[in-house]
Amino acid sequence: MRKLLFGLLGLVAARGLAIADVTPSRTPVVDSSLTKLVERELIDAAAAERDAGTRVAYYASVTTIAERDLDTARLNVDTTRRQWDAAVTAHDADLASVWAHRHADAVAEEREASGRLLLNRTERDLARAEFQRCADDLHRIATKVARVQRATRG
Description:
The structure is a single chain. The protein contains 3 helices and no strands. By secondary structure, it is mostly helical. Helix 1 packs across helix 3 (93-153) and helix 2 (33-89) packs antiparallel against helix 3 (93-153).
Protein backbone atom coordinates (compact mmCIF):
# COMPACT_ATOMS: atom_id res chain seq x y z
CA MET A 1 0.00 0.00 0.00
CA ARG A 2 2.83 2.42 0.78
CA LYS A 3 4.37 1.58 -2.61
CA LEU A 4 1.09 2.50 -4.28
CA LEU A 5 0.89 5.66 -2.21
CA PHE A 6 4.35 6.78 -3.27
CA GLY A 7 3.48 6.06 -6.88
CA LEU A 8 0.42 8.22 -6.50
CA LEU A 9 2.41 10.92 -4.85
CA GLY A 10 4.39 11.07 -8.07
CA LEU A 11 1.21 12.56 -9.45
CA VAL A 12 1.58 15.30 -6.86
CA ALA A 13 4.93 16.21 -8.33
CA ALA A 14 3.48 16.15 -11.82
CA ARG A 15 0.84 18.63 -10.69
CA GLY A 16 3.47 21.16 -9.66
CA LEU A 17 4.12 20.43 -6.00
CA ALA A 18 7.65 19.95 -4.73
CA ILE A 19 8.49 16.24 -4.70
CA ALA A 20 10.78 16.82 -1.73
CA ASP A 21 7.66 17.49 0.31
CA VAL A 22 6.34 13.97 -0.21
CA THR A 23 9.35 11.67 -0.62
CA PRO A 24 9.48 8.42 1.37
CA SER A 25 12.59 9.52 3.26
CA ARG A 26 10.67 12.47 4.66
CA THR A 27 7.52 10.55 5.51
CA PRO A 28 6.91 10.63 9.26
CA VAL A 29 7.36 7.43 11.19
CA VAL A 30 4.24 8.15 13.26
CA ASP A 31 1.11 7.13 11.34
CA SER A 32 -1.66 9.33 12.58
CA SER A 33 -5.26 8.48 11.79
CA LEU A 34 -5.52 11.76 9.88
CA THR A 35 -2.60 10.79 7.65
CA LYS A 36 -4.09 7.36 6.98
CA LEU A 37 -7.48 8.89 6.19
CA VAL A 38 -5.99 11.39 3.75
CA GLU A 39 -3.83 8.69 2.14
CA ARG A 40 -6.92 6.49 1.71
CA GLU A 41 -8.71 9.46 0.11
CA LEU A 42 -5.80 9.86 -2.32
CA ILE A 43 -5.86 6.19 -3.29
CA ASP A 44 -9.62 6.31 -3.82
CA ALA A 45 -9.37 9.49 -5.89
CA ALA A 46 -6.64 7.98 -8.08
CA ALA A 47 -8.77 4.86 -8.63
CA ALA A 48 -11.78 7.01 -9.56
CA GLU A 49 -9.65 8.99 -12.02
CA ARG A 50 -8.31 5.77 -13.56
CA ASP A 51 -11.85 4.37 -13.93
CA ALA A 52 -13.09 7.60 -15.48
CA GLY A 53 -10.14 7.56 -17.90
CA THR A 54 -11.04 4.01 -18.90
CA ARG A 55 -14.63 5.11 -19.59
CA VAL A 56 -13.37 8.00 -21.72
CA ALA A 57 -11.20 5.65 -23.78
CA TYR A 58 -14.06 3.15 -24.18
CA TYR A 59 -16.62 5.72 -25.30
CA ALA A 60 -14.10 7.38 -27.61
CA SER A 61 -13.58 4.01 -29.34
CA VAL A 62 -17.30 3.27 -29.48
CA THR A 63 -17.97 6.75 -30.87
CA THR A 64 -15.37 6.23 -33.60
CA ILE A 65 -17.04 2.94 -34.53
CA ALA A 66 -20.47 4.65 -34.59
CA GLU A 67 -19.09 7.40 -36.86
CA ARG A 68 -17.80 4.78 -39.28
CA ASP A 69 -21.11 2.91 -39.13
CA LEU A 70 -22.93 6.13 -40.04
CA ASP A 71 -20.55 6.76 -42.95
CA THR A 72 -21.17 3.21 -44.19
CA ALA A 73 -24.93 3.63 -43.82
CA ARG A 74 -24.83 6.88 -45.82
CA LEU A 75 -22.82 5.17 -48.53
CA ASN A 76 -25.44 2.39 -48.65
CA VAL A 77 -28.25 4.95 -48.92
CA ASP A 78 -26.48 6.65 -51.84
CA THR A 79 -25.73 3.35 -53.57
CA THR A 80 -29.26 2.00 -53.24
CA ARG A 81 -30.71 5.31 -54.45
CA ARG A 82 -28.50 5.27 -57.56
CA GLN A 83 -29.45 1.66 -58.29
CA TRP A 84 -33.13 2.43 -57.77
CA ASP A 85 -32.90 5.42 -60.13
CA ALA A 86 -31.07 3.29 -62.71
CA ALA A 87 -33.82 0.64 -62.54
CA VAL A 88 -36.53 3.30 -62.95
CA THR A 89 -34.66 4.81 -65.90
CA ALA A 90 -34.41 1.32 -67.46
CA HIS A 91 -38.20 0.89 -66.97
CA ASP A 92 -37.62 -2.31 -64.94
CA ALA A 93 -40.41 -2.25 -62.37
CA ASP A 94 -39.41 -5.46 -60.60
CA LEU A 95 -35.80 -4.34 -60.13
CA ALA A 96 -36.94 -0.86 -59.15
CA SER A 97 -39.16 -2.41 -56.48
CA VAL A 98 -36.23 -4.44 -55.12
CA TRP A 99 -33.99 -1.36 -54.95
CA ALA A 100 -36.78 0.72 -53.41
CA HIS A 101 -37.04 -1.80 -50.56
CA ARG A 102 -33.27 -1.92 -50.17
CA HIS A 103 -33.18 1.87 -50.13
CA ALA A 104 -35.84 1.99 -47.41
CA ASP A 105 -33.82 -0.50 -45.34
CA ALA A 106 -30.67 1.56 -45.88
CA VAL A 107 -32.44 4.74 -44.75
CA ALA A 108 -33.64 2.95 -41.60
CA GLU A 109 -30.08 1.74 -40.92
CA GLU A 110 -28.82 5.29 -41.40
CA ARG A 111 -31.31 6.60 -38.83
CA GLU A 112 -30.31 3.86 -36.41
CA ALA A 113 -26.60 4.59 -36.87
CA SER A 114 -27.23 8.30 -36.40
CA GLY A 115 -29.04 7.62 -33.12
CA ARG A 116 -26.23 5.38 -31.88
CA LEU A 117 -23.69 8.04 -32.77
CA LEU A 118 -25.62 10.70 -30.88
CA LEU A 119 -25.91 8.44 -27.83
CA ASN A 120 -22.23 7.49 -27.90
CA ARG A 121 -21.09 11.09 -28.32
CA THR A 122 -23.20 12.07 -25.32
CA GLU A 123 -21.76 9.22 -23.22
CA ARG A 124 -18.23 10.18 -24.31
CA ASP A 125 -18.78 13.81 -23.35
CA LEU A 126 -20.23 12.81 -19.97
CA ALA A 127 -17.25 10.52 -19.39
CA ARG A 128 -14.86 13.37 -20.26
CA ALA A 129 -16.60 15.68 -17.78
CA GLU A 130 -16.45 12.98 -15.09
CA PHE A 131 -12.74 12.43 -15.82
CA GLN A 132 -12.05 16.15 -15.45
CA ARG A 133 -13.93 16.23 -12.14
CA CYS A 134 -11.96 13.20 -10.90
CA ALA A 135 -8.66 14.74 -12.02
CA ASP A 136 -9.51 17.96 -10.17
CA ASP A 137 -10.43 15.95 -7.05
CA LEU A 138 -7.17 14.02 -7.28
CA HIS A 139 -5.18 17.24 -7.51
CA ARG A 140 -7.05 18.73 -4.53
CA ILE A 141 -6.51 15.60 -2.41
CA ALA A 142 -2.85 15.28 -3.44
CA THR A 143 -2.33 18.86 -2.27
CA LYS A 144 -4.04 17.98 1.01
CA VAL A 145 -1.81 14.91 1.46
CA ALA A 146 1.30 17.02 0.94
CA ARG A 147 0.05 19.54 3.52
CA VAL A 148 -0.75 16.84 6.06
CA GLN A 149 2.62 15.19 5.58
CA ARG A 150 4.42 18.53 6.01
CA ALA A 151 2.37 19.21 9.15
CA THR A 152 3.11 15.81 10.71
CA ARG A 153 6.80 16.21 9.90
CA GLY A 154 7.29 19.45 11.68
